[in-house]
Structure formats: C-alpha cells, structure tokens
Amino acid sequence: MYRQTVDGQAAAPREQAAAQHRAIAAQTQAEMLRDQAQMMLDAARMGREAGSPFILRSPPVPGPSARREKMMFAGFLMVLLAAVVIFHPLVRAFARRLEGGHRKPDALDTGSAERLARIEQAVDAMAIEIERISEGQRFTTKLLSSRLEAPVAIDR
Fold first, then answer.
1. Confidence at 156, pLDDT banded by 50, 70, 90
2. How far apart, in whole angstroms, are the C-alpha atoms of residue 76 and residue 56?
3. 3-state secondary structure 47-92
C-alpha cells in the first residue's frame, strides 16, 4: 500500500519522479563532461597536426589570484605590525603594575644635593648682580633725561 500525504495523494509516484529527474540530470552532466573531454582531445590533435605545441591546461582553480594573495599577505603584515606597536606599551605597563606597582623616585644622593645647592647660590648671585645693573641703568636714564630738560646757557 502507498503512504498517504496530507492532501491524500500517493507519495510513491512523487518519489519515483524525483529519482527519475536526478538520474536524467546526472546523465546529462556526464554527457557534457564527455563532450568537453572530447573537444580538448580534438584541439590537442589539431595542434599537433598543425605543428604547434598544444598544452592541455586544467581550468583555473577558483579562489584569489596570486597578486591578490600577495596583497592580502602584505595587509596582514601591516595589521600585525600595527598591533605590536599599539599593544606592546600597554602590555608592558600592565606587567609593571602586576609586578609591584609604581616605584618612588630615588632621593638625591649627597653629590647631587651639593651640586644643586651651588647652582642655587649661583642663581641668587646672578639675580643680585642683575638688580644692581638695572638700578645703574635707571640712574643713568634719570640723569640723561634731567640734562635734556634743563636749558644750557652759552657764554660769550
């Protein structure tokens, strides 16, 4: 007995029709491949008869071309380099934080402290000398301006 479908039709004739359709499709595909092979053999024979070497080549393999593969590799290297440049300092900072936190700056040793004291004294001495020079400049400017204001009498 045949299986019944929802609409009440027998399922066996449909399955037979589908199997027949698949068999016809496979047979058609096999014939096409056979024809292509025969055409390639005929072309090779014609090339040999004409005296030109004819090399059978396989059809191109689908996928990226050699140039595209090189471009993809170059892009990959640039992204990798950028990632290293960006993430290296971040990882180092994180590792330092995990190791023991931040370091306090070392105190100045005695030699550096003495040197710093001498530099401070020299700067103070320069400030005093500059102040003296500016006072002398102000005095000279005052004398010259008062000299121009007073009329000079000429004796004959």
1. low
2. 36
3. HHHHCCCCCCCCCCCCCCCHHHHHHHHHHHHHHHHHHHHHHHHHHH
Contact of 2 with 11, CB cutoff 8 Å: yes
Residue type, 61: V
Angle CA(88)–CA(92)–CA(96) in degrees, nearest 5? 175
What is the radius of gyration, based on Cα positions, of the chain?
50
Round to whole Å and give the CA distance between 52 and 75.
Answer: 43
Residues in the chain: 156
In angstroms, the CA 28 to CA 72 distance is 40
pLDDT of residue 107: 65
Which residue matches tokens 């595909």?
A: 29
* Identity of the residue numbered 104: K
pLDDT by residue (tens digit) across 36-60?
989 888 887 777 777 665 566 666 6
Is residue 47 within 8 Å of residue 53, measured between CB atoms? Answer: yes
